[in-house]
Write a structure and sequence with these properties.
heterodimer; A: 315 residues; alpha/beta; Rossmann fold; Helicase, Ruva Protein, domain 3; five-stranded parallel β-sheet; 13 helices; B: 651 residues; alpha+beta; C8orf32 fold; five-stranded antiparallel β-sheet; 48% helix; 12% strand
Chain lengths: 315, 651
C-alpha cells in the first residue's frame, strides 16, 4: 500500500517536472516565473500575471493549461462583459418546458481571465467569488466547480485608461502575483529565431492530469514545517506589518499563503521539508500585491519587500 | 488535593529545616513528628482517612500544654521555636490542599532563620543554605503542579526542581548582598537575647572544682581569636586571664561577688612593653572578657575588677569584639586592701591537716615568701608528680590526698593545691582561670585560642612586687606550657589529633574568622565605614535607605532591560554544532548577514575556498536536514558535528 503510494508519488513528481520542462521550452529564459506559476497551481491558489503586453503572459497561461492536461477556457475581459457571460445563464427551453442552465466559461479547470481589470467591478466580483467559493450560484441553484480550479488572470499595469483596478480585498484572492518581464539577450535571440510559435503551443503534450495535480496538492500541504522555519515565516509576516512605509501588512490569510507557497516550492524542488530559502523565493510574489503603502511612502512595493527580506534575521 | 510528590516535597522541606533544631526541642518532639509524617504518608498511599477535627484539636492543645510543661511558658525564644516546630509538624496532618502545603513550606524559611537565634557560626551555614535550596525546590514543585483533579501529577524529577531552585537563589544572591550591605542596621539588637541562665555553653565557668576544666580538653571549638596590632608577644606570655577565684571551701574555688563587682582602683603609672590587640570572643553568655595579663586600657562598656578581671556590662550572647592594651610587666600598687587580704588568705577549717602542718613547718624553715614558693615548686618538680587527664578521685582532704598520695593531676589540681598551700603558709594567693597558649594562624594572621587551651594557675602576693603569676603546672609539666595541653600527654584524643585533621581544622578556622569578621560582626559601624572610601562620613539610616533604594532601583532597571531585550533564542543542536565553523569563517573575514540563508552563505564562501567547497556543501546540506527536515533526520546532527570537527582539523 505504502509502496504503491510512493511509486505514485514518484510518478507524479516526474510528470510535474516534465510539465515544467515543456513550458520552459516554450517560454524561454523564464524558469523562475514558470516555477512560480506551477507553485501557485500546486499550492491550490490562483495566479495573477501583471505585465506589459507582448511579454508572453497569455502564452504562459495557455502553456500551463495545456501541459497540466486540464479543461481550459479563456475569457477576454472587456468593459461590457456581464457576469452572466462568465458564469452562465438559465434559458427557457420550450421543448422541455423548463429553464435550463447553460454553464458559462467559468465551468472549467483552468480559466484564463485575460485583461481582468478591463471588466466592470460587477463582472470582476463574479469571477472572484467563483475563485474563492469554488462554486457558482445562479437563481438559487448552486453549482460546484470541479477541482482543480485554477484561475490565471492577466492585467496590464501601464495602460490604465478605462480600466477598473482590482480592489485590495480582491487582490488578496490571488495567491501570487508575478510579472514576466523581458527575456534576456540570449533568450530573446532564440525567440526571434523561432518562426512557428503558434504551432509550438498547440504541439504541447499534456504531462499532468487532474489526479496527479490533486495528489501533488495534498502532498504539498502536508510538507514538514520545522519550528525554526515557522519562526522565520512569522518574523517575515510581522516585518510586513511593522515596516514604516506599510499601512496594512500581510493578513493571517496572506501569512498562510506564504507558507503554502513555500511548501509547494519545496515540493517542486523535490524536498520533503521547507527551508528558509523557500520562503524567500516566494516571498515577493506572495506579499507584494497584498501590501498597502502609506500615503507618503517613497519606495515601491517591490523595494519594500526587498527591504524586509534583507532586514529579517533567519532564526 | 495535592499529589503524593507534592506531599513528599513538603515533608522533605519541613524535616530538613527542623533537623538543626531537634537537639534543642523536647525529647518527645521527634517521635511525634515521625508519627505525624507516617500517618500522613499512610493517608496518601493507603487511603487512611484524615484525622477528625476533634483529634486534631486535642493534639494541638496537648502540644501547647507540652511546651508549657517543658519550658514553663509559651513565650521566649526556646519555647517559641518549639511551638512553631510543633504546630508545623501538626499542620502536616491537615495538609491536603495546595494552600496548606504552600503555607508549611513557606514557614520552613522562618524555621531555618530561627536557627541563627541560637548560633551564627559558619559551621551550620552550608547546611542551612542547602535547606533553603530544598525549600525553594519544594515551593517550585508545589506551584507547578496542575490544579484540579484529573490532572496528571508531575514527575518526581527532583533534579529539575533542585536545579531550578538553585538557579533562582543564585539570581537572588546579588539582591541579598545589596540588602545585607545597605539595609539600615540598628546599633543595638531589636530584642534582647535570652539571659545566660537559660542556656549552658561549654567554656570556663566562674567556679573551679575537680573535673570542671578537664571537660574542656576534648573541646576544640574556638574560644576566641586575637589580632595583635603589632608583633605577637612571646609564647610564654600567652596567659589569657579569665575569672579570678578567691573563695575556697575545700573542694571548689569560687569568685568573690563583691570583689568581682568592685572596680580596680587607679593604676600606678606604668612603663614597659605594651601590646594592643583586638579580641573576637565567641559567645559565652557570661560577663567576663578574656585579656592578656595584665590589661591596662579596656573598652568603655566593661570594667576591670579588683582581680584584674575584665567584665563586660552585658553578657556576651553574640560574637563580641573588643580592643585591649595589656602590659605584661605590670607593677601592682603597694598595698593589699584588708578585704583582699582577708579573701586571699581564707581557708576552710578542718581540711587538709597534713599539708597545713607541712606548710607551717616549711614556713619556719625558709627565709621568705619567695623562697617558700620556690621550694614548693621544686618539690612539685622533684617528687613523683605527674601530669595526666585521668587522675584518681580525691577524698575530703583534697590537697592532702593530692600532694601525698595520688600525685596525678592536671593544671586544676596543681593550681588549687598550690594556692591552698600558699594560704596555709600565710601568703596571700588566688586562683586565676583562663586560657594558656593558642595557635598562631599565619593564613589569617591571628591567634586562635580553643576551649581545649583552658588553664588554671595561681597568683601570690609578694610585699615587694605585688601579685605575681606562679604556674605550678609548669613546674611539673613544662611542656604543657610550651606545647599546649593537647601535646603534653601521650594520650591521643582519637581522630582530633591527627596532623592532617588539625591542619584542616586550622584552615576551616581561618574561614570562620573571615565569616565572623565580615558577616556576623558586620554591624552599623562597619556599615558606615563602608562608605568612607566614597567620602561619605557619618551616614545616617535615612541616607542609607536612600542609597539602598537607589541601588535596588538601578539593579531593577538593569534586570528589566535584560528582560525587555528580545529573548535570545536558545540555540538548537544544529546551530550549536555548526557554530565553531561559523566562528572560524567569521575570523577569516567572511561576514554573514543575519538575513542570509546559511546555504547561500556557505555557497558564497565555497566559491572563495574551492578546496573546501565539497565539505562546506555537505555541511550546509546536513545543517539544513538537521534543522528543517522531519524528525527522523535528527540523525544528521552527529554527522554534522563530525564534519565540522573534521573541517576544523584541516584549518
Amino acid at each position: 500500500m505504502n509502496d504503491i503510494a510512493s511509486t505514485d508519488r514518484t510518478k507524479h513528481h516526474q510528470q510535474l517536472h516534465a510539465a515544467i520542462a515543456s513550458v520552459n521550452q516554450l517560454i524561454l529564459g523564464k524558469k523562475q516565473q514558470v516555477k512560480l506559476a506551477f507553485t501557485a497551481l500546486i499550492a491550490d491558489g490562483h495566479l495573477l500575471i501583471e505585465d506589459l503586453p507582448g511579454v508572453g503572459k497569455t502564452t504562459l497561461a495557455e502553456a500551463i493549461a495545456l501541459v497540466s492536461g486540464l479543461a481550459f477556457k479563456r475569457v477576454q475581459f472587456t468593459s461590457d462583459l456581464l457576469p452572466a457571460d462568465l458564469i452562465g445563464v438559465s434559458v427557457y427551453s420550450a421543448k422541455k418546458e423548463e429553464f435550463l442552465f447553460h454553464p458559462g466559461p467559468v465551468f472549467t479547470q483552468v480559466l484564463l481571465a485575460d485583461e481582468v481589470n478591463r471588466a466592470t467591478p460587477k463582472a470582476q466580483s463574479a469571477l472572484l467569488e467563483a475563485m474563492s467559493e469554488r462554486q457558482v450560484t445562479v437563481e438559487n441553484e448552486t453549482y460546484p466547480l470541479d477541482p482543480p480550479f485554477f484561475v490565471i488572470a492577466t492585467q496590464n499595469p501601464v495602460d490604465l485608461a478605462g480600466t477598473f483596478p482590482l480592489p485590495d480585498s480582491q487582490l488578496d484572492r490571488f495567491l501570487m502575483r508575478i510579472s514576466v518581464g523581458y527575456p534576456d539577450a540570449a533568450a530573446e535571440r532564440q525567440i526571434l529565431e523561432r518562426t512557428n510559435r503558434r504551432g509550438m503551443l498547440s504541439g504541447l503534450q499534456a504531462s499532468l492530469d487532474a489526479t496527479a495535480i490533486d495528489s501533488l496538492q495534498s502532498e504539498a500541504s502536508a510538507l514538514h514545517l520545522a519550528g525554526p522555519l515557522l519562526d522565520y515565516a512569522q518574523a517575515l509576516i510581522a516585518a510586513t506589518r511593522n515596516h514604516a512605509s506599510v499601512q496594512v501588512g500581510l493578513s493571517p490569510r496572506g501569512g498562510l499563503a506564504l507558507v503554502r507557497c513555500a511548501q509547494a516550492w519545496a515540493l517542486i524542488d523535490g524536498r520533503d521539508y521547507c527551508r528558509p530559502e523557500d520562503l524567500r523565493e516566494v516571498f515577493a510574489e506572495v506579499t507584494s500585491h497584498r501590501l498597502q503603502l502609506t500615503a507618503d511612502a517613497t519606495s515601491s512595493n517591490d523595494q519594500i519587500v526587498g527591504d524586509i527580506l534583507g532586514a529579517t534575521a533567519i532564526p | 488535593m495535592i499529589g503524593r510528590y507534592a506531599l513528599m516535597w513538603t515533608m522533605t522541606a519541613l524535616v530538613v529545616s527542623l533537623i538543626p533544631h531537634v537537639p534543642r526541642l523536647p525529647l518527645w518532639f521527634t517521635p511525634l513528628l515521625l508519627a505525624v509524617l507516617a500517618y500522613r504518608l499512610g493517608s496518601a498511599w493507603r487511603g487512611w482517612r484524615p484525622l477528625p477535627m476533634l483529634i486534631r484539636f486535642m493534639l494541638t492543645a496537648g502540644a501547647i500544654a507540652g511546651v508549657v510543661l517543658h519550658y514553663g511558658s509559651i513565650f521566649g525564644r526556646d519555647a517559641g521555636i518549639a511551638l512553631l516546630a510543633l504546630m508545623l509538624a501538626l499542620k502536616i496532618t491537615e495538609t491536603y490542599k495546595r494552600r496548606d502545603a504552600l503555607l508549611v513550606t513557606s514557614l520552613c524559611y522562618f524555621v531555618v532563620i530561627a536557627h541563627f537565634l541560637f548560633s551564627q557560626s559558619l559551621t551550620s551555614v552550608p547546611y542551612l543554605a542547602a535547606t533553603v535550596v530544598v525549600i525553594t525546590a519544594s515551593l517550585l514543585q508545589l506551584s507547578s503542579t496542575p490544579v484540579g483533579t484529573g490532572q496528571r501529577e508531575l514527575d518526581w524529577d527532583w533534579r529539575r526542581w533542585v536545579k531550578q531552585s538553585g538557579l533562582l537563589l543564585i539570581q537572588a544572591a546579588p539582591l541579598m548582598l545589596i540588602m545585607f550591605l545597605l539595609f539600615p542596621r540598628l546599633s543595638s539588637p531589636l530584642w534582647g537575647m535570652p539571659s545566660a541562665s537559660e542556656e549552658t555553653r561549654t567554656g570556663l565557668s566562674n567556679e573551679m572544682s575537680p573535673g570542671s576544666i578537664v571537660d574542656l580538653f576534648i573541646d576544640d571549638s574556638p574560644a576566641f581569636r586575637v589580632r595583635f596590632d603589632d608583633a605577637m608577644p612571646p609564647k610564654n606570655l600567652w596567659y589569657w586571664r579569665g575569672p579570678v577565684l578567691w573563695n575556697y571551701d575545700g573542694r571548689t574555688w569560687r569568685g568573690d561577688r563583691s570583689l568581682t563587682r568592685e572596680k580596680l582602683a587607679q593604676h600606678p603609672p606604668q612603663d614597659g612593653l605594651e601590646y594592643s590587640y583586638q579580641v573576637e570572643l565567641e559567645p559565652t553568655n557570661r560577663h567576663w572578657l578574656l585579656t592578656l595579663d595584665y590589661p591596662l586600657q579596656v573598652p568603655g562598656d566593661a570594667h576591670l575588677s579588683v582581680g584584674h578581671q575584665l567584665l563586660s556590662k552585658d553578657p556576651i550572647n553574640s560574637l563580641k569584639v573588643y580592643d585591649v592594651v595589656s602590659i605584661p610587666a605590670y607593677s601592682h600598687p603597694d598595698e593589699l586592701t584588708p578585704k583582699e587580704r582577708q579573701n586571699a588568705l581564707q581557708l576552710p577549717d578542718g581540711f587538709n591537716p597534713r599539708s597545713a602542718e607541712m606548710m607551717q613547718q616549711w614556713r619556719q624553715e625558709t627565709p621568705g615568701p619567695r623562697a617558700l614558693v620556690n621550694r614548693v615548686l621544686r618539690w612539685f618538680n622533684q617528687e613523683e608528680f605527674q601530669y595526666s587527664f585521668t587522675p584518681p578521685l580525691l577524698g575530703r582532704h583534697a590537697v592532702d590526698d593530692f600532694i601525698f598520695s595520688s600525685r596525678n593531676g592536671y593544671c586544676e589540681h596543681y593550681a588549687s593545691s598550690f594556692t591552698a598551700m600558699m594560704r596555709m603558709a600565710g601568703i596571700p594567693a588566688r586562683v586565676v582561670t583562663g586560657y594558656q597558649g593558642g595557635y598562631a594562624n599565619e593564613l589569617g594572621d591571628y591567634l586562635l585560642v580553643r576551649q581545649s587551651d583552658a588553664h588554671a594557675w595561681s597568683e601570690v602576693w609578694f610585699e615587694d612586687a605585688g601579685w605575681t603569676r606562679i604556674d605550678p603546672t609548669a613546674a611539673v609539666a613544662p611542656e604543657r606550657i610550651d606545647l599546649g595541653s593537647r601535646n603534653a600527654i601521650l594520650q591521643r584524643r582519637g581522630i582530633l589529633d591527627y596532623a592532617w585533621v588539625m591542619q584542616l581544622r586550622n584552615t576551616f578556622d581561618t574561614l570562620s574568622a573571615l565569616w565572623n569578621e565580615w558577616v556576623v560582626n558586620f554591624d552599623s559601624t562597619s556599615q558606615k565605614q563602608l562608605f568612607n572610601p566614597f567620602g561619605l562620613r557619618d551616614i545616617d539610616s535615612r541616607q542609607l535607605s536612600l542609597i539602598m533604594v537607589t541601588v535596588l532601583a538601578l539593579a531593577a532597571l538593569i534586570a528589566m532591560a535584560g528582560l525587555l531585550r528580545k529573548p535570545r533564542q536558545r540555540a538548537d543542536d544544529a546551530t550549536r554544532a555548526i557554530s565553531p565553523l561559523l566562528r572560524s569563517l567569521r575570523r577569516k573575514g567572511y561576514r554573514r548577514d543575519p538575513s542570509e540563508p546559511l546555504q547561500l552563505y556557505l555557497a558564497r564562501v565555497a566559491r572563495d575556498l574551492p578546496d573546501h567547497a565539497k565539505a562546506l556543501q555537505k555541511i550546509a546540506l546536513l545543517y539544513e536536514k538537521a534543522r528543517y527536515a522531519p524528525e527522523p533526520n535528527v540523525e544528521a546532527i552527529p554527522d554534522l558535528i563530525q564534519w565540522v570537527t573534521r573541517w576544523q582539523q584541516t584549518q
